[in-house]
């Protein structure tokens, strides 16, 4: 009974997320991932719904800090204001450079941030998934571009990669990148 109660408490938290029954898929990540080439600015092209990303003009900036961790700076324009969320990314296992962990608070554990594919100069496909008692999972997927707009065929190829890895992309939505001011 306590597990059911726990699940009912979690439902409001996942209402704006994408969740599925069962454990997380385990997709392949980018072989030979080069973090130094990945650093810099990425624009969100499409995503699975996320409660923390409801605005437009969404972008992420990655930079190495002096302590070796990665600064993650996400910005979006929401409710007539530019909103910024700053976090930290780490590479928990140096043998798997494409499997990062990201946290936006000292009080939360690192969430998976797996780079499934990137050419470093045009597009990146990123996936994150968290199991809840192995009963269901909450997942996020992003198609990122080095520019605010990338070719339709590139987006379709990225979506197919996600599907081929067993990731359900139903509900994936484009991010509005129109009328944005570049910093």
Tell me what you see in this structure.
The protein has 183 residues and is of the alpha+beta class. 16% of the residues lie in helices and 41% in strands. The chain is built from 3 helices and 10 strands; from the N terminus they run αβαββββββββαβ. The chain has helices at 2-14, 35-38, 152-164; strands at 18-21, 40-47, 56-64, 70-78, 81-90, 99-103, 111-118, 123-132, 136-145, 173-174. The protein has an 8-stranded antiparallel β-barrel. Strand 8 (123-132) and strand 9 form a beta hairpin. The N and C termini lie far apart (52 Å). The model is unreliable at 1-16 (pLDDT under 50).
Topology:
Layout: H1 2-14, E1 18-21, H2 35-38, E2 40-47, E3 56-64, E4 70-78, E5 81-90, E6 99-103, E7 111-118, E8 123-132, E9 136-145, H3 152-164, E10 173-174
